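User: Sequence in, structure out. Go.
Assistant: Echoing your sequence, followed by the structure tokens.
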Amino acid sequence: MGLWLWLEYTNYPNIISTMMQLSDSLVKSLSNEALTCLDTLAAFENPPIPKDGEDLDLLDAKIWSNKRPCDDVTEEDKTMFLTFSRGFPVSEEEVRELFITDYGNGSVVEIVMGNYEANNQSMFATMVLNGVALVDEILQGLRLAKLRANGKDIWVRKYDRRN
């Protein structure tokens, strides 16, 4: 909490109220990222903490010691779960086209369509994207987002492995 208060005091007004509007999973991710930053700074004898009026260069290699902020992201972190409406079959090609059109070439790494029902319709799919930031962009701070491909509804959410 001290980090967020310090950020709000220095250069990021309203960061806490902005964070309060985010989903629990995004707040948890921010919290984990804050802990990583603090652990990294704690490893320095003379941490690169800016003085009043100075900016902290988060791209400075000395801060990350050969580790970028997203290096520990797993494939599961970049995976979304998609569901489709019964009676409105959606193909893998339609899903791929939707995301490539909206988010660019290379945005989709892999799509795995779920089991097909008797009417030859898959009711779900998992999709691996090229980064966690894209997952966040698609969900826009929500737990669930509704997209449309060729007039058919596609519901997307962050993938959550269920054992």
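User: And one key feature?
Assistant: The chain has two domains: 2-64, 76-158.
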